[in-house]
Design brief:
alpha/beta; 4 helices; 5 strands
Length: about 120
């Protein structure tokens, strides 16, 4: 069964350009099979949740990884202010990611035992 430990993953980086988001998503996916996790997309991290991204030479699909994480029971949210700053409407996000706020990130930070930032 799942442990009681709760982990919060905060993603600050765009999905492409560096491997930070990719490695963080790999860890989150592996951990989501054992523990309760929450994922918050912040800053350029909100780009990980956009539907229909299909880069020609990508080694991975961040949306597919987020779907896998959500299927394991994780809650995934994106910073609404960060989305607005980048002109991203809620409709552009995959259904597994919902628009959220810094207030929710504060609540999640208080609720989770470990916060892991990528």
């Amino acid at each position: 069964g799942k442990e009681t430990m709760k982990y919060l993953f905060v993603f600050n980086d765009a999905p492409y350009g560096s491997q930070r988001a990719y490695n963080g998503l790999r860890l989150a996916a592996a951990l989501s099979r054992k523990a309760e996790i929450k994922v918050f997309l912040l800053g350029d991290g909100v780009l990980c949740g956009i539907a229909g991204l299909n880069p020609a030479h990508a080694d991975y699909n961040p949306q597919e990884m987020l779907r896998t994480i959500a299927a394991a029971g994780a809650v995934i949210a994106a910073c609404g202010t960060c989305m607005e700053a980048r002109g991203i409407p809620s409709e552009l996000l995959i259904p597994q990611v919902r628009r959220s706020s810094l207030d929710e990130l504060v609540a999640w930070t208080e609720e989770c035992e470990k916060v892991i930032s990528f």
